[in-house]
């Protein structure tokens, strides 16, 4: 068994994300099984030891994220994840990572609803945000994985890769070679023991009080600085895709796999003469507000399609050019097993909801 | 001729950078001092990383000249696991109170021990949540009065304390478990040797180590500062016998 | 003649009395005066053996302990 994988392979999303993470230098992973995230844990479990890394099947999600936090504190590129239900247990630690200014990739293989609120509003405490990238397919997930490791290190913050059962379990031919990114400063803040006994021993502490011999900024200044950092990120890191927006009087707004289906329906309806396009937030946070406003400037209707009871809907209403044009055409749609999306994620129902709204 | 006396004991190691603000008669600073003395004497300070939980001892991160990650309540053993796995040449320890380790973090310490992670967990056990003002923990002993067991811990309503060191000693993957107390001079000296032994096991790669240190908390026990040692001996030691715990036979 | 002696950082002391209790020859006694924090502090009488019991139990790192090797 070789320890390096060939660059282009037919892989399912979990395997592809694994290879992409390894190409990015990820050498620590901890997770707790939960479908469809489990494939990521399985792949990491097999591959990380082959490249000198560590994968731990943690005894709970709490432990998984805190193990990963420790690895990140020691300077490793580390990752963890779960489905939304398991991510709920990790919220405190994600907030802690943000206030500790520690980089970590957290993968949400959201399994039966699109977990927009959890990713963008968070459930931890404090003024923190998580850069969240929502790929629409496996090739984009491969790109996003490496980009997220870069962003996590660049901004010293936890970040989220937002996936779902289709991305996790669909096989696609992908190129998982390492991508190039701008150089990053060395992690001189990372714990390695060597500054012990110097009077300036390193400290990772959300209250940032430092040592009596080398005082830190303290919680007030530190937390303000962290909040200001996220304001800057909001300004600089929003990403979106506008598909066939030119001349569109109807704009669909969707993300992730829902956007993949919506894109197909847009093509069909364009064939039929409808002036319709798709606006796809690629970052769920920062929400691409300015891009959405521009894309919806001439739209008569803005139709939000998401697989939940209306979560991204709030942000679309807030930032679309004209709030009164926004309508919700998504909904809760759960597969009978409870573990995946239901019948709404399909071309026919999406098409019929759009046509109903257009009529 | 005036003889110059020879120094036989310093007030504190250089690794303690300043004074602490803990209560008169608190046992936790004594535990800190012997821990740092051991790191110094074993010459491992420049490769040590501490993971400190939440409690009165949390303020020690400001005065201990050792690299520290201050972590979420109860989670120190998991964070220690991550650190040690990616930096196996460091010496990794946790410092946690009973509320942190045995209440919030019981699963963390048990799983970390069972996995045989090569880290050393240090439990500062005073049977009370001192930092929040004196509340019952999983190690509060029967009869002990706290603000949430006003008439004394009663098994019928409050159940029984958990001897975590005994639970840990029953697991394979564990290399050393001991209980000391800092209530007497002899106890302090013996506890320091326990810490040294525990770190020697980590350096040898033997697996998980736990040193439980009974500490005085006169404030949380509602006794005068000077009565802490007697209270510890009379109440906590009965529930938590001192000494090295024998480990389960490995298969 | 004392075989040992201690230096006492009076201003660090919080008056807990543990040193007085721990001292085997009973040569420590709490003061009447108080330090800047308002606590009484230990005073050393003759007869110290330099055994370090006080230094071992002190939570506030008040004591340095010395021995006279000729005694």
Structure in a nutshell:
The complex is a heterotrimer of chains A (359), B (251) and C (71). Chain A has 359 residues and is of the alpha/beta class. Chain A is built from twelve helices and 17 strands.
Describe how the helices and strands are arranged.
The complex is a heterotrimer of chains A (359), B (251) and C (71).
Chain A: E1 8-12, H1 13-23, E2 28-31, H2 38-47, E3 54-57, H3 61-73, E4 78-82, H4 84-100, E5 104-109, H5 116-121, E6 131-133, H6 138-155, E7 158-163, H7 165-169, E8 171-175, E9 203-204, E10 210-211, E11 214-215, H8 218-236, E12 240-243, E13 250-253, H9 256-271, E14 276-281, E15 283-285, H10 289-295, E16 301-304, H11 312-319, E17 326-328, H12 347-358
Parallel strand pairs in A: 2-3, 2-4, 4-5, 5-7, 6-7, 13-14, 13-16, 16-17
Antiparallel strand pairs in A: 1-8, 6-15, 10-11, 12-14
Helix pairs in contact in A: 1-2, 1-6, 3-4, 9-12
Chain B: E1 6-9, H1 28-41, E2 48-52, E3 67-70, H2 76-86, E4 91-97, H3 98-104, H4 106-114, E5 120-125, H5 155-158, H6 164-169, E6 174-181, H7 185-203, E7 208-214, H8 218-221, H9 228-239, E8 243-244
Parallel strand pairs in B: 2-3, 2-4, 4-5, 5-7, 6-7
Antiparallel strand pairs in B: 6-8
Helix pairs in contact in B: 1-7, 3-4
Chain C: E1 4-8, H1 18-22, E2 28-30, E3 42-44, H2 53-57, E4 63-67
How large a portion of the residues of chain C is in β-strands, by DSSP E? 15-25%
Low-confidence segments of chain A, ≥5 residues, pLDDT <50? none
Quickly name the level 1 CATH class of chain C. Answer: Alpha Beta
How large is the count of helical segments of chain C? 2
- Strand adjacency order, main sheet of chain A: 3-2-4-5-7-6-15
The overall pLDDT average of chain A reads 96
Structural class of chain C: alpha+beta
């Amino acid at each position: 068994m070789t320890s390096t994988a060939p660059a282009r392979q037919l892989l399912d999303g979990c395997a592809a994300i694994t290879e992409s993470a390894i190409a990015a230098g990820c050498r620590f992973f901890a997770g707790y099984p939960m479908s469809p995230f489990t494939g990521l844990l399985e792949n990491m479990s097999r591959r990380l030891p082959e490249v000198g890394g560590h994968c731990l099947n943690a005894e709970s999600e709490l432990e998984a994220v805190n193990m990963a936090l420790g690895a990140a504190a020691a300077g490793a590129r580390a990752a963890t994840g779960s489905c939304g239900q398991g991510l709920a247990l990790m919220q405190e630690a994600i907030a802690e990572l943000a206030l500790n200014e520690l980089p970590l990739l957290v993968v949400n293989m959201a399994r039966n609803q699109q977990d927009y609120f959890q990713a963008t509003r968070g459930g931890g405490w404090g003024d923190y945000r998580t850069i969240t990238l929502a790929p629409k397919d496996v090739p984009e997930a491969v790109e996003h994985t490496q980009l997220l490791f870069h962003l996590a290190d660049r901004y010293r913050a936890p970040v989220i890769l937002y996936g779902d059962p289709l991305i996790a379990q669909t096989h696609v031919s992908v190129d998982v070679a390492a991508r190039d990114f701008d150089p990053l400063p060395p992690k001189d803040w990372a714990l390695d023991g060597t500054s012990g006994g110097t009077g300036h021993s390193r400290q990772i502490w959300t209250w940032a009080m430092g040592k009596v011999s080398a005082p830190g900024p303290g919680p007030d200044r530190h937390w303000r600085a962290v909040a200001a950092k996220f304001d800057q990120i909001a300004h600089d890191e929003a990403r979106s895709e506008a598909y066939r927006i030119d001349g569109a009087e109807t704009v669909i707004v969707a993300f992730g796999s829902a956007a993949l289906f919506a894109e197909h329906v847009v093509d069909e309806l364009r064939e039929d003469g409808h002036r319709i396009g798709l606006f796809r937030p690629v970052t769920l946070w920062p929400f691409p507000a300015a891009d959405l406003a521009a894309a919806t400037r001439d739209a008569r209707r803005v139709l939000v399609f998401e697989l939940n009871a209306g979560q991204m809907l709030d942000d679309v209403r807030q930032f679309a050019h004209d709030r009164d044009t926004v309508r919700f055409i998504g909904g809760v749609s759960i597969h009978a097993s409870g573990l995946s999306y239901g019948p709404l994620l399909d071309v026919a129902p999406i098409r019929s909801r759009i046509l109903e709204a257009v009529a | 001729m005036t003889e110059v006396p020879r120094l036989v004991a310093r007030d504190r190691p250089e690794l303690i950078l300043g004074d602490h603000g803990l209560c008169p008669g608190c046992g936790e600073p004594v535990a800190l001092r012997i821990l740092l003395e051991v790191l110094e004497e074993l010459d491992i300070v420049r490769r040590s990383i501490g993971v400190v939980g939440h409690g009165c001892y949390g303020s020690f991160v400001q005065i201990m000249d050792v690299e520290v990650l201050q972590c979420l309540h109860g989670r120190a053993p998991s964070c220690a696991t991550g650190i040690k796995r990616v930096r196996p040449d460091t010496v990794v320890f946790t410092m946690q109170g009973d509320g942190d380790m045995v209440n919030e973090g019981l699963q963390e310490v048990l799983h970390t021990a069972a996995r045989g992670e090569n880290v050393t967990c240090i439990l500062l056990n005073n049977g009370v949540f001192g930092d929040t003002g004196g509340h019952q923990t999983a190690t509060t002993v029967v009869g002990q009065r706290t603000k949430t067991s006003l008439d004394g811990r009663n098994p019928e309503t409050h159940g029984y304390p958990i001897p975590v060191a005994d639970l840990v000693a029953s697991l394979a993957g564990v290399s050393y478990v001991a209980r000391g107390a800092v209530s007497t001079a002899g106890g302090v000296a013996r506890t320091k040797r326990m810490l040294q032994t525990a770190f020697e096991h980590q350096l040898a790669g033997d697996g998980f180590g736990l040193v439980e240190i009974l500490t005085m908390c006169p404030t949380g026990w509602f006794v005068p500062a000077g009565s802490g040692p007697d209270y510890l001996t009379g109440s906590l030691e009965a529930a938590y016998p001192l000494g090295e715990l024998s480990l389960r036979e490995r298969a | 003649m004392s075989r040992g002696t201690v230096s006492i950082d009076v201003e660090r002391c919080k008056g807990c009395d543990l040193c007085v209790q721990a001292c085997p020859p009973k040569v420590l006694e709490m003061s009447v005066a108080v330090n800047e924090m308002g606590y009484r502090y230990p005073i050393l009488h003759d007869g110290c053996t330099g055994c370090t019991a006080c230094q071992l139990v002190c939570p506030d790192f008040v004591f340095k302990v010395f021995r006279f090797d000729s005694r």
